[in-house]
Amino acid sequence: MASTSDIRNGLCIKYNNDIYKIIEFLHVKPGKGPAFVRTKLKSLTTGKVLDNTFSAGHKIEDVRVETHKFQYLYPEGDLFHFMHAETYEQISLQRDILDAPDLLKEGEMVMVIINTETEAPLSVDMPASVVLEVTYAEPGVKGNTATNATKPAKVETGASVNVPLFINEGDKIKIDTATGSYVERVKE
What we know:
Blueprint: E1 2-3, E2 12-15, E3 18-28, E4 36-43, E5 49-55, E6 59-62, E7 65-76, E8 79-84, E9 90-94, E10 109-115, E11 121-125, E12 129-137, E13 150-155, E14 160-164, E15 172-176, E16 181-186
């Protein structure tokens, strides 16, 4: 058993007969009344996100998990295949377990969270950012740079990302996996 003081990003808890991962939290101590913790929970079985508030000192049941390094191999319909980095054992995971499946490039290393009681994979932690090549982008029009104008661009995984006007086909860009947004152009 854990309490609200143990809440942190990535903590897996049992709540309402389901397993949730805390993706955001905020400890609030108002001037009047007791303190509480405002959280954003993501269901690891359905992928739904819900907001919940725990009162300070509330007991929560945490789930024992292990993280293992896996390499992403290939997609097959709604299944994504991964290989354990040390044992070479392969597993298949549903698309809805992944946080950003559109940004997953073959050969990418990810961390898979596994429930130690049932040995079932719960979720996949992507790296903070990925570098992908732009496969299609409209040409930027000279003179349209008065503001932070963006245009849609397709990357090699098929995802669509809004990028600045100076990005062209063939450029490699860094993308934040948490928000799916453009970070910077990568020079090689």
